[in-house]
Design a protein that fits this description.
single chain; six-stranded mixed sheet; 289 residues; alpha/beta; Metallo-beta-lactamase, Chain A
């Protein structure tokens, strides 16, 4: 009968639609944008401290100190907060051989370009607690601060060598925190939005609780922001370890881990502190997606 033919076509269309659906929700890349914010540049007059095997003896150069904003359908994450404003002041924990270069913008002024205020930030995650990465943390009092248990314990025991008492006092009074307990959590990573698209990776060595950030973008693929795991592209290439790292062995193990993750995901590894990597990223307010 003719009336059955349209019904059969409808059923086939539905079948093909079912076949076209992905097997798992986390296999579909959500609409994510990755912005690079201007949060500081440092004239590194003495590069010697960036390797414990002498490659930078007598050499000078400069380093970048960016922050990154990730816009996800489920919220907004800020990765690192740069040196304290005004940037002319050397943050607590910044090496004495470094001199900040003045900036004409702040994190908050850059957020305004995107139509955001500090209260719109849902999460602030820190690669580690050195002053050039936590300097503007208190500008985000309503965000959930994502911190590492080992880093927190180390900072409390050594306030003069890491974040300083001001940040620790702010952290103590902060209302919302997410503590990643790398002592007992076998996974040791944190899936920020629950869909594996943005993960805080455990990469100790520079400090006891150093972290990196993996961001899976729909068009640009996976990007890994490495904090201070490397300071230059040469350090990445040759696996060089800075003189003042907390643990040489853990630093090398974390480098191996990032290399393997990058291989498996075909990721773009961004050396945050490297000027050439900073310059290769879309200039704000452009973004990767």
């Amino acid at each position: 009968m003719r009336c059955k033919k349209p019904a059969r076509q409808t059923w086939l269309g539905m079948a093909f639609a079912v076949i076209a659906l992905p097997g798992k929700a986390d296999e579909v890349a959500p609409e994510i944008r990755l912005y690079t914010l201007e949060c500081g540049h440092y004239a590194q007059y003495d590069m010697r401290i960036l390797s414990d095997t002498g490659e930078y003896e007598g050499k000078s150069g400069s380093l970048a100190d960016p922050c990154f904003l990730i816009r996800h359908p489920k919220g907004i994450l800020l990765w690192d907060t740069g040196g304290a404003d005004p940037v002319e002041r050397i943050p607590v924990g910044m090496d004495v051989h470094s001199t900040p270069k003045p900036l004409s913008v702040t994190i908050v002024s850059q957020l305004k370009v995107l139509g955001l205020t500090s209260k719109d930030i849902d999460y602030v995650a820190f690669s580690h607690f050195h002053g050039d990465h936590i300097g503007n943390a208190t500008a985000f009092p309503t965000a959930t601060w994502v911190i590492n248990r080992a880093e927190l314990d180390w900072a409390r025991k050594n306030p003069g060598g890491s974040s300083g008492p001001e940040f620790l006092a702010a952290l103590k009074n902060h209302v919302k925190t997410k503590v990643i307990d790398t002592y007992y959590d076998l996974e040791k990573d944190y899936d920020v939005f629950g869909d594996r698209s943005v993960k805080v990776l455990n990469t100790p060595g520079h400090t006891p609780g150093s972290q990196s950030l993996e961001v899976r973008l729909g068009h640009s693929g996976t990007v890994i922001l490495t904090g201070d795991l490397y300071q230059t592209t040469e350090n990445l290439k040759h696996r060089r370890v800075p003189e003042e790292n907390y643990s040489r062995a853990e630093s090398l193990a974390s480098m191996d881990r990032i290399a393997e993750i990058a291989k498996q995901t075909r990721a773009r590894v961004v050396v945050q502190m490297a000027e050439d990597d900073f310059d290769s990223l879309p200039k704000f307010p452009a973004f990767l997606d």
